[in-house]
Structures are given as structure tokens and as C-alpha cells.
Specification:
The complex is a heterodimer of chains A (about 500) and B (about 230). Chain A has helices at about 10-30, 35-50, 55-75, 85-135, 140-155, 180-190, 235-300, 310-340, 350-365, 385-405, 445, 450-475, and strands at about 155-160, 170-175, 205-215, 220-230, 350, 370-375, 385, 410-420, 420-425, 475-480, 490-495. With about 500 residues, chain A is α+β, with helices and mostly antiparallel strands. The longest helix of chain A has about 70 residues, at about 235-300. Chain A is elongated, with a radius of gyration of 43 Å. Chain B is an alpha/beta fold and about 230 residues long. Chain B has two domains: about 5-120, Rossmann fold (3-Layer(aba) Sandwich), CATH 3.40.50; about 135-230, Winged helix-like DNA-binding domain superfamily/Winged helix DNA-binding domain (Arc Repressor Mutant, subunit A, Orthogonal Bundle), CATH 1.10.10.10. Chain B is built from eight helices and 14 strands. Chain B has helices spanning about 10-25, 35-45, 65-70, 90-95, 110-120, 160-170, 180-185, 195-210; strands at about 5, 25-30, 50-55, 60, 60-65, 80-85, 100-105, 135, 140, 145-150, 155, 175, 220, 225-230. In chain B, helix 6 packs across helix 8 (about 195-210). The chains are: A alpha+beta (about 500), B alpha/beta (about 230). The interface between A and B is large, with 39 and 33 residues.
């Protein structure tokens, strides 16, 4: 971002002088062969062309001067300012009038074009500044403003603004340094929203401009420009600086409003999720609780009339259902924990093979008759993850595959690297999940679906919602795929990181 | 008769465990708080000092770590930590501080009894002779002669593999945390290098297990450490 500096006055005069030199050369050359009126036309032409570089007043002055010189050089009697013939007087006056008028018009036209160009450049500059700060985090906006103002004015810049820490009626210095007196002026400027050029007692050798940062709903802060004494800022630069300040203020206001609305949305969403989650959980808890109460109260009331085998079966029912409740509780707590914003998971280097082994060991003890088949590639890379969470993910996927698939099926667990990702999949031979449902099953709770289909899926819903949360917390993805010969494959992909350095291999000695 | 100190603040769970342990032939001292537990320990006659401690993590007047710290100043009695799922990191911390094993609520009584049997088998091992032999399933590991047999055939281990295995053998049946393994096998400056463990446990499983993906001996405790299974428990 840079404003093209105005071409200096002296530099601008050079082409104008050149034009006049050429014109005089031409006139001297034509002298004798062309008559006076023709020579005068050359002069009028030069006057028009030189207006391209000179100001209006300069053009007129130069034109008057050249008419006098023309009189001296060409109009008889030559070498004097006296004029013999009346028609020559008319010629000179006409030359003066036309030359001046043309020069003045050209100069004015040029100035207007220059002003339009400068305004367009300023607008473009402001626009790109606006785009620049929009892409910046809030903390960077002030330094961008200070840099832009410094480029524009060559002044030392300090910025005071309202921030989250100051509250709505106070400002603090967010960029640069300021004396107590300067800070007082910045405060006053923020309050009054008036630009000023205060005379500051304790900053010697400098003069200051204080500009408010005015937004729609008041002033969000102020800017102080510190210039060497005697160096004035042109009005156009000052107005650009003011525009920058206002643009920054508007941006800050907009960002504040955006943040507020985002937060409100998030709160509403959290509340909704919490409500549906609670409703769903209380529903999910009822079934195992009812079964446990039934079995336990039967043991209590019918003890004398039950066979030893019946007692054992009832007790087993209680144990099984309590395990279900235990899993449900773990899932609920973990989902609530992962749902909380800014949750940190404990990552370490883990072996996918070990985690799968751990989940499979649990599944085998919990479902002794289920057939579980492992297809785990050898030499899998290590995964940087939270071991407990990944095991919980696998437990849930295996639980679902066992519970919702046919009794005679084989549950397959697969793990293999896939480019820069690790693929973990648990597949069953169940009824499958309709394409339309595949995304919905992960969101059963967030959507708060009701109806029989939602009820049927709900047992799996909490578990799947948690699976999704775990995968997302690790920066991975989870998708449901239909298998070729029936059934569903739940596929999780986790990004792989650069592997840690391992100790050098040793020769076997023991 | 073995004596158990049961420190658990929930009345129902305390009563249930107390009864179950009595049925198994243990004498049970039950405490509902840290202060209770400390008083029970202090006032028990020397001959009746508890042989094993079941320590709940969340107590009304303090946490289990305080009790463990006081206990370890004068006793090597095995301590089994009982934790809820959300106390994962506390649990690992207590294991590193000298607790012997852990159980996560809810747990079955048979699980508890198995852990207690293992803990009692190791009782006083730090002063008496350490475990130097592991002969279970297809494995026969003799630390004294540094011989490792699988199905009767000798298995060659690298020195580090052997040291790691030996550390687990000495705590057969008990969980050994990542930190403890790294410290004892590689040294104190390697306690964060869990990836070393992943590599060497993988190598050990490949050499010692029938199916490395479904180990029968070298078990993983996710997020905590490793356990050499004790099939007798």
C-alpha cells in the first residue's frame, strides 16, 4: 500500500520549458518566411501544450510573458515594446486572451484528472487496507492500522482503543508508546470524537495530531500521530488518515457483533444438544434399569421357588445389564467431555495393533460366542492419540457390530496405512444402513429425532455420536460404507504424523 | 487369616465388598474416609496390620495419594487403587507413586479377588527374593539363567528386550506403568519416550506370542502401561 508521491514542481516545469524552447526555435526559424499571424499561432499552440505541466496561474503568467517577448522580437518595430499598426495590437491582445484561456483550461483539466486519480488511488488503498484487516485476527488489527498510518504520514503512531480488558468506557494503549499527557488527549478524543492538534507540553520538538476512530455506534478509540515540529500534514493526507481510523473502528464493531452472535448461536446449540442428550440418555438408561430391577426383584421375591439354574441366569442378567449401563455411562461422560469447547486430549505415541488387541480382548470376554476376525497389517506406523479414547471408539464400533448384526456373522476388524492416514475399520454382516441414514446416525442426538426409526437407532446413536466426537478430536474422519456381500463397514481415518525417532537396533545377545 | 483394609466412602459398595471378602475368608477392616483409614492403620496391633489395602480415590476428606504417601513411609503392603473412569490420570499417578494395581469402577468381584491374589503373592517381594521365573502357557522365562523358552524352544532376545521382559516378570500379574518401565529399562531421562515401549513390546510379542495381535501374555493397559498376565490368578 503506497500513495504515488506528487511529481515535484521543479521537475514538472522542465517539459513546459522545453515546449517553449522548441516553439521559440520554430518561430525564429520561420521568421521572414511566414507572416506574423502564423507565428502567433505557434505561440498559442505552445501555450496550450505547456498547460499540460503547469498550474493555471503559471500558464497564464507564462503566456503573458511570451506575448510581451513576441512583441519585442517579432512585432515591428522590432526590439521595442511599441506597436506600429493597430491590427498588430489586436493580434497581440487576441493572442494573449486565447493563449491564456487555452493554457488555463488545459491546466485545470489536468488538475481535475490528477485529483480523480489520487482519489481513486486513495479509495483503492483504503479498500485493500479493509481487506487486509478483515483477514487479520483481532490482535493484529491495531498494528496494521499503525503501519498503514506510518506509511501514509511518516509520523510516529500510537493507538489507544477499547478492548475486552478495558470495558466499554475506557481505552488502553494497544500500539506504540505514549506519555501520560498524550494518553489523556487520546482519552479525550475518544470521548468527544473530535480530531485535534493539541499543543503538548512535555513532548519537545514534535507536534501531534489526534484522530478519533469513529464507528457507527460511537468512538472505539483514538490515534495519535507525532510529527517533527513544523512539518504539516496536507488536508488530503489527514482525511485519508481519518478514513483509515474510521474503517478500523467499523471493522472492530463488526467483528464484535459477529463474535457476539456466534457465541449466542453456540450457546443455543449447546443448550439444545444438552436437552436432547438428556432426554435420549434417560430413555437409554431405562431399558437396562428395568431389566436389572426385574431380575433382582425376582431373586428377592421368588428366591424359594427358583431353581439354582434360574438364580444363576438372573444374576448373569444383572451383571450383563450393569455392564451395558457402565458402557453407557462412560460414553455419556466422554461425549459431554469432548463436547465441551477447547477440550484437550492426552496424546501419546500408541501402537494401533495394541489398541485393537485391547479392544478385542474385552469383546471376547464380553461376547464369548461372537466370531471376530482381525485383518491388521504388520508394521503399522505409530499413531499419536489418546489410547483410552481410541479403545473406547473401537469398543463402541465392535459393540454395535455384534449387537446389530445377525447371530452367525463374523465381525471383521481391519487396520492398514492409507497414504498419510491410518485406516481403522470395523465391519459386520448386518442389515446395513440406508444411504440417507448414514450421516444421520451420527447425529441422532443433536437432531433430537423422534419416531420408531430413531428409537431403534438410538441404542447405537449415543455410541456413534461419541465415535464421531473421538475421531474428530483426533483430526480424523469416520464414514459408513456398505460392504459388497451385505453389511456395513465403519471406517475411521486418522492423520499420521512424522514418526518419532527410535533407538538404534541392537544385536541379539541374551 | 489375611486382613484387608477397605477404604471406600460409598456405604453400599463398602457393605457389599465387605461381605464378599468375608465370604472369601478375609478379615475386613472398613474405613469410610481418609481419617478413618489412618486411624485404623495406626491402631491395629502389629500382628494384625492389614496385608492388602483397597483404596478408593475420591474420599470425602482428602485423596488416596495422601494415604499412600503416609503408608509407604513405613509399609510395603500392597495397595490396589479403586478409581472411577474419569480419574484416569490420578490412577496412573498413584501407580507411579507406589500403588501396586488398579481396578476401574464398576468391577466384578472375581476381578477384585484375582487382583488381590496377585498382589498378595508379590507381598514383601521388595525385601524378600524377587520373582525370577515365569512358566505359564507356552512360555518359560528364567531370569537367573537369562533363558527364554517358547514351546520348549529357546528364543533369542536382545538385551533391551530381555530387560523389558524381566521387569514385567518381576511384577507378574500386575500392571507396570509406562513411566516405571522406561525408567527401569532405559533410565530416568527416557520416561517420556513411550514410543520405545511400543517398538520393543511389538518385538517381544512377535517373538513370544502365538498371535501378536491378540496377545495372551503381554497385555496392554491402554493409557496406563503393560501387564504380564498371571494365568493362575
Amino acid at each position: 500500500m503506497e500513495i504515488v508521491p506528487a511529481v515535484s514542481r521543479a521537475f514538472r516545469a522542465v517539459p513546459a520549458l522545453a515546449v517553449w524552447a522548441v516553439a521559440w526555435g520554430l518561430m525564429l526559424a520561420l521568421d521572414g518566411s511566414a507572416d506574423l499571424a502564423n507565428l502567433a499561432l505557434v505561440l498559442v499552440l505552445a501555450s496550450a501544450v505547456s498547460g499540460l505541466w503547469l498550474s493555471a496561474a503559471e500558464s497564464v503568467a507564462v503566456c503573458a510573458l511570451t506575448v510581451l517577448a513576441f512583441n519585442w522580437q517579432f512585432v515591428p518595430p522590432r526590439g521595442t515594446f511599441t506597436v506600429d499598426l493597430r491590427q498588430h495590437i489586436w493580434l497581440l491582445l487576441t493572442m494573449l486572451a486565447v493563449g491564456s484561456m487555452v493554457a488555463w483550461l488545459t491546466a485545470r483539466q489536468r488538475l481535475m484528472a490528477e485529483a480523480a486519480r489520487a482519489m481513486a488511488a486513495q479509495a483503492q488503498w483504503l479498500r485493500s487496507f479493509g481487506e487486509d484487516i478483515r483477514a487479520q485476527p483481532a490482535a493484529q488489527v491495531w498494528s496494521r492500522l499503525a503501519t498503514a498510518l506510518q506509511q501514509l504520514t511518516q509520523a510516529q503512531v500510537c493507538v489507544a482503543a477499547r478492548t475486552a480488558a478495558t470495558g466499554p468506557h475506557e481505552v488502553q494503549l494497544v500500539q506504540g508508546t505514549a506519555s501520560a499527557e498524550e494518553l489523556a488527549h487520546l482519552r479525550e478524543c475518544t470521548r468527544s470524537a473530535q480530531a485535534s492538534a493539541p499543543a503538548l507540553a512535555d513532548v519537545h520538538g514534535y507536534q501531534s495530531h489526534v484522530l478519533p476512530m469513529a464507528g457507527h455506534s460511537g468512538c472505539t478509540g483514538a490515534v495519535l500521530l507525532r510529527l517533527p515540529r513544523g512539518q504539516m500534514l496536507p488536508a488530503s493526507v489527514l482525511s485519508t488518515a481519518q478514513a483509515l481510523c474510521n474503517q478500523t473502528a467499523l471493522h472492530c464493531e463488526r467483528a464484535e457483533v459477529d463474535a457476539q452472535s456466534r457465541q449466542a448461536q453456540q450457546e443455543a446449540h449447546t443448550q439444545k444438544v444438552r436437552n436432547t442428550l438428556l432426554a435420549a440418555i434417560s430413555h437409554d438408561y431405562r431399558t437396562p434399569l428395568a431389566t436389572i430391577l426385574g431380575a433382582a426383584s425376582s431373586l428377592l421375591a421368588q428366591q424359594q421357588r427358583l431353581s439354582a439354574e434360574q438364580v444363576r441366569a438372573l444374576a448373569q442378567t444383572v451383571v450383563d445389564e450393569v455392564q451395558t449401563l457402565g458402557t453407557l455411562t462412560d460414553n455419556t461422560l466422554q461425549l459431554a467431555r469432548l463436547d465441551a469447547t477447547g477440550v484437550q486430549i492426552r496424546r501419546d505415541w500408541e501402537s494401533p495393533e495394541e489398541l485393537i488387541g485391547s479392544a478385542v480382548a474385552r469383546a471376547r470376554s464380553r461376547y464369548p460366542v461372537a466370531k471376530i476376525n482381525l485383518r491388521v497389517a504388520t508394521g503399522l506406523p505409530l499413531l499419536r492419540c489418546d489410547a483410552a479414547l481410541i479403545v473406547q471408539l473401537l469398543n463402541n464400533l465392535i459393540d454395535n457390530a455384534v449387537k446389530y448384526g445377525p447371530a452367525a456373522q463374523t465381525v471383521e476388524i481391519m487396520a492398514r496405512p492409507l497414504g498419510h492416514e491410518l485406516l481403522l475399520a470395523v465391519a459386520d454382516r448386518g442389515a446395513g444402513i440406508a444411504v440417507a441414514e448414514r450421516e444421520r446416525v451420527f447425529l441422532a442426538f443433536e437432531r433430537g429425532d423422534t419416531g420408531s426409526a430413531a428409537d431403534a437407532a438410538r441404542g447405537a446413536g449415543l455410541g456413534l455420536a461419541l465415535c464421531r466426537a473421538i475421531v474428530l478430536a483426533h483430526g480424523g474422519s469416520i464414514v459408513i460404507r456398505a460392504r459388497q456381500r451385505g453389511g456395513t463397514s465403519m471406517e475411521c481415518r486418522f492423520p499420521l504424523e512424522a514418526q518419532p525417532e527410535q533407538p538404534a537396533p541392537e544385536g541379539s545377545a541374551a | 487369616m489375611m486382613t484387608v483394609l477397605l477404604v471406600e466412602d460409598d456405604r453400599e459398595l463398602r457393605a457389599t465388598l465387605r461381605q464378599a471378602l468375608s465370604v472369601e475368608g478375609y478379615a475386613v477392616l472398613a474405613a469410610a474416609s481418609l481419617a478413618d483409614a489412618q486411624a485404623l492403620w495406626a491402631h491395629a496391633p502389629a500382628a494384625q496390620r492389614p496385608d492388602v489395602v483397597l483404596l478408593d480415590l475420591g474420599l470425602p476428606d482428602g485423596d488416596g495419594a495422601q494415604f499412600l504417601e503416609g503408608l509407604r513411609q513405613h509399609s510395603q503392603a500392597p495397595v490396589i487403587v479403586i478409581s472411577a473412569r474419569h480419574q484416569d490420570s490420578d490412577k496412573v499417578h498413584l501407580l507411579d507413586q507406589g500403588a501396586d494395581d488398579y481396578l476401574v469402577k464398576p468391577f466384578g468381584i472375581e476381578e477384585l479377588l484375582a487382583r488381590m491374589r496377585v498382589a498378595l503373592r508379590h507381598r514383601g517381594r521388595s525385601v524378600a527374593a524377587a520373582v525370577t521365573r515365569y512358566a505359564q502357557g507356552a512360555l518359560d522365562i528364567d531370569l537367573a539363567t537369562r533363558r527364554v523358552l517358547r514351546d520348549g524352544a529357546e528364543v533369542h532376545l536382545t538385551p533391551t528386550e530381555f530387560n523389558l521382559l524381566a521387569r514385567l516378570v518381576r511384577s507378574t500379574g500386575q500392571v507396570v506403568t509406562h513411566r516405571q518401565l522406561l525408567q527401569d529399562v532405559w533410565g530416568a531421562e527416557f520416561t517420556e519416550h513411550t514410543h520405545y515401549l511400543r517398538l520393543y513390546m511389538g518385538q517381544l510379542r512377535a517373538k513370544l506370542e502365538m498371535d501378536a495381535a491378540q496377545p495372551a501374555h503381554l497385555l496392554t493397559e491402554p493409557g496406563v502401561g503393560y501387564r504380564l498376565s498371571d494365568l493362575r490368578a
